[in-house]
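Hypothesis: this fold can be encoded by more than one sequence.
Test: take the structure tokens below, design a sequence, compare later.
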């Protein structure tokens, strides 16, 4: 055995002696266990930014630039008044709108009304510089919306025709005048509701939309509705209804039946331009609108005397 390293048994004896002395010290002091480590400051995964005050909008909410309607010029036509044989308003439909969970968090849910309006202004500015589809090459100007962006009721059409493309507002021609009379017949003013389109650029002829235009504008419309947050939507015509609901069913089959778009009840009905060409469709449109009115607690204004 190498004497330089000593006898291993002596080393074991010394270790055992030290351990026994430590144990005896613990027993005498009652200090069993190791002293706890002082708590450490846990560094947060991120530093929350100081809350910033929401910027106040510098402009008034998006509003209809038309003059306030008068009773004479905007009185609902007889064809949009309740049928004479009905003495009581129609009973409320059995449909109870349920709000299913959204697939994505709406960007407007946590914003103040003022901030939502400002975001809509910014979105309109973004749309004005959009070049995602071929309509950007033919448009005179984008057509974003008109009316009250915080309204409980929203009308969604297809896209701007030549008159809308020239004016920069949706529904300004003959079909737009009929839509305004429909709105008044529901108990609103045209400036009380929000009117926008599936596609923001035109001009669109014969209400025929190309698939690339619908796909390009789909994110804009989704954000627009998320920020506006209407309680109900009226989809006007085949293109608007199919685009909103992602369906290929015809408007003749879909109209009059409640559907859902991201948790918002949607009532499909005929486009006002179709009603202009086929006046007999007014009765069906009026029936559809009364279903919306029943849920909103609205009653039509009294007929003209």
């Amino acid at each position: 055995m190498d004497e330089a390293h000593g006898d291993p048994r002596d080393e074991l004896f010394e270790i055992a002696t030290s351990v026994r002395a430590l144990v005896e010290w613990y027993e005498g002091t009652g200090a069993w266990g190791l002293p706890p480590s002082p708590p450490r400051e846990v560094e947060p995964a991120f530093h929350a930014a100081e809350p910033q005050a929401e910027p106040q909008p510098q402009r008034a909410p998006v509003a209809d630039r038309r003059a306030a309607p008068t009773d004479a010029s905007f009185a609902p036509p007889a064809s949009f008044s309740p049928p004479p044989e009905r003495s009581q308003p129609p009973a409320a439909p059995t449909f109870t709108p349920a709000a299913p969970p959204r697939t994505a968090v709406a960007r407007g849910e946590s914003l103040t009304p003022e901030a939502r309006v400002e975001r809509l202004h910014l979105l309109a500015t973004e749309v004005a510089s959009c070049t995602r589809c071929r309509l950007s090459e033919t448009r005179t100007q984008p057509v974003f919306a008109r009316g009250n962006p915080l309204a409980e009721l929203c009308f969604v059409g297809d896209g701007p025709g030549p008159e809308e493309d020239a004016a920069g507002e949706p529904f300004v021609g003959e079909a737009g005048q009929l839509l305004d009379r429909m709105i008044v017949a529901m108990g609103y003013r045209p400036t009380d509701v929000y009117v926008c389109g599936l596609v923001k650029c035109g001009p669109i002829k014969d209400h025929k939309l190309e698939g690339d235009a619908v796909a390009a504008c789909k994110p804009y419309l989704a954000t627009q509705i998320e920020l506006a947050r209407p309680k109900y939507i009226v989809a006007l015509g085949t293109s608007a209804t199919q685009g909103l609901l992602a369906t290929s069913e015809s408007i003749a089959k879909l109209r009059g039946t409640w559907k859902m778009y991201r948790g918002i009840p949607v009532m499909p009905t005929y486009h006002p331009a179709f009603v202009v060409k086929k006046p007999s469709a007014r009765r069906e449109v009026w029936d559809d609108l009364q279903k919306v009115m029943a849920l909103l607690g609205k009653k039509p204004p009294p007929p003209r005397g």
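Residues 116-296 form a domain with the Uracil-DNA Glycosylase, subunit E fold (CATH 3.40.470.10). Residues 62 and 121 are 8 Å apart (CA to CA).
Hypothesis status: open.
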